[in-house]
Amino acid sequence: MLDKAIKQAVDQVNGEAPWSLVEAFATMPRWKPEDVEASAHDIARRLKEVGVPVELLEANLYLSIPYEASVEAGGETLAAKPPAYSVSCPEGLTGVLAHVPGNLSATVSSFYDKNRDEAAAAENRIRGKIVLTDGFASPNKVLEFQEKGAIGVIAVNPGVDRHWGICSSIWGTPDLDGLPRKPTIPVAVVNNPDGQKLIALAKDGGSATIRTRLEEGWFKSLVPVVNVTGAVEPEKFVLLAGHYDSWDVGVGDNATGDAALLEIARVLWANRANLRRSVRIAWWPGHSTGRYAGSAWFADAFALDLDENCVAQVNCDSPGCRWADVYENVACMSEATDLCTSVIREVADLPFEGERPLRAGDYSFNNIGLSSFFMLSSTMTVEKRKEMNYYTVGGCGGNIAWHTENDLMEIADRDILIRDIKVYLAAVMAVANAAVLPFDWRATTREFAATLEKYRKAAGDDAVLLDQVSAALAELTATLDTFYAGIADGSVQEDRANAVIQDLARILVPLNYTRGPRFTHDPALPVPGLPALSVAGELAAHGPETVGFARTQLMRGANRTAAAMRQASRLAR
């Protein structure tokens, strides 16, 4: 998998420039607009110092900047944090408390699920009240509580810390269709000891007052971009990116990622003559305060170029963190599994455990249809998390300093960062230099088959509605077997193979990861496999009044899915 040029480049990685950036960012908070802009200029300065040219693009992003919050109850004023995109309410909102119990996610893969008690969340129990919810202020929970008439939400975080976050399901800057999903209620986050006081108060019918202060509006945001031009196919490129804004100083999320991108840019620029395709490296703003607003802006502003020329998207978030000894639960689309497995084995001498990418982490390119891999990288073992009594978080290698003021230098590990940089560099170069793009769509059809079988079982007698999908999938599987056999025996030329592999992504990635049309952005809510068919798993829950509508939805979803698979078959033929 790794050719001589890649191995030489990997050997050139060192910790001098990246570690210097980590140390500097550990003293630079990066969520207020003026601080974010200063850090963009710092990234640009460091790139120029190591001889890498950089362009600072200017984006106009709609952001929500949280400042402070408190909860008054039971004669106490409790410290709190306001999630971005919640409503600013400095004058205070008072209401009766209603507790909706919930369970914490055991793994990152379920981190964005709602995890709350259905009965306790019933509309007649929470309308006109302030909801207390266990866990994090996730957008799907806040949206549901708002729709059921809650006037405010207080999230009770699992430990002694209060975690920053964002409670909007809107992906990036809202468009007119997305605006109705903007939260219209105040939300505050408290730690677990204070949350337990509030839960006890709620049991006695007590009230609380939420105060929050946020600033919402349009902000100029800078996007540093490095273009390393390939020597053979310069118009084709791999997009490697990560966010540089963070909560507080955010060392493990994501100063270490910013440092990784800096070092990779340095090494790739020095080895640009050995690149077949180009590599475009970008640092995103608006990740924290705009729900991936920077990457969404880039996807919008350069949509046609991405559609025509981008062969893969690679996300770099939270590498190089303390105790991150394994590559487990690493985001990877099925077609890239063999690539990721090989690279991590060869570079880090570790096994790889990939998982379906969540609707999170600057994956702003699913609707365009880009094959993608990585999001979070290495992490600590399950055993280490148990030893430390850590609950699940969405970054920092599993360290619970994630999204808190405790994400400081102690969260970073220089040796682990260098190892992770080498993994990212090798993976990006493996795509950029491959004679035939290293994406195997047969792995994706195997995922489709498992997903379809699950839906067929859930649909029961209505599984007949999925017969056309089964037939189309069988045809696509056979066609891809022939296509890849042709690549292996040389009967399919490399340039034609690459065109087909890229174009298959434009069909099959949206089919597997999106509900909306191409060149839009689906909400930041969980997306199941083959989402147009997901209603099949819900048919049993529908009574006589709605089951016919659900069957109609399934029929339409089956039409979309089968047609896309047939289109992919024609392309591969």
Can you describe this structure?
Pfam families: PA, Peptidase_M28. The protein has 573 residues and is an alpha/beta fold. The protein folds into three domains: 4-63 and 219-433, 3-Layer(aba) Sandwich (Aminopeptidase); 64-217, Glucose Oxidase, domain 1; 441-572, Transcription Elongation Factor S-II, Chain A, CATH 1.20.930. The protein has 16 helices and 13 strands. Strand 1 and strand 2 form a beta hairpin. The longest helix is centred in the last third of the chain and has 26 residues, at 547-572. The protein is globular, with a radius of gyration of 24 Å.
At CATH level 3, the topology of the largest domain is Aminopeptidase
Summarize model confidence as the mean pLDDT.
Answer: 96
What global shape is seen?
globular
Share of β-strand residues: 15-25%
- What is the alpha-carbon Rg in Å? 24 Å
Pairing-aware structural class of the strands and helices? alpha/beta
CATH architecture of the largest domain: 3-Layer(aba) Sandwich
Report the top-level CATH class of the largest domain. Answer: Alpha Beta
| Biggest β-sheet description | 11 strands, mixed
- The helical percent reads 25-40%
CATH superfamily of the largest domain: Zn peptidases
How many H/I helical runs? 16
* Total discrete domains: 3
Which series of helices and strands comes N to C? HHHEEEHEHEEHEEHEHHEEHEEHHHHHH
